[in-house]
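S1.2 Input.
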Amino acid sequence: MKRFLIFGISLVALSGCDFLGDSKAKVEQQYLANNQELEQVIEDIRAHGLAAMSQSAEAGTLASCVAKQLNSDPMGAMIEVEGALQDSANLADLMDTITGLADQELSMESLPSLLQAGADTMSYLKTLLANYELSELQQQVQTLVEQGQSKSEDIGTHLRNLVEQCQ
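S1.3 Output.
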């Protein structure tokens, strides 16, 4: 009996650490496997960056359309984070984190609240801040709020809606 209890606890612990379950990246790969041209476009964007892809994509191609859609959206740069197309994190929570960055000065006291946001949120922030100044990013977040796009969408749904407009 003790053996089964230990096995059960280990199973729960391992699944919580994502050893047994599919990670977002694996689920994203399954999603992209249904459209290999889109998969190649996303891989190219991640390898070379969204700006480079926008400049080099031929007009009228899927790559051009996807790059245009992502560039026109304030959160489009998040596509560069692996697994983003299947991320169920709430877009409103990410936007609240971005808005909160201006309200607080980065210090040792503010680090715990940023760390609570999670590693995925930090990856998105890093990607977005590499593309935008904080004030510009906050303005774009405000635009999304005004358009009502943040109310019920998760990050993956938001990004999938952008790229699926090109198919």
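S1.4 Remarks. Residues 1-21 have pLDDT under 50 and may be disordered.
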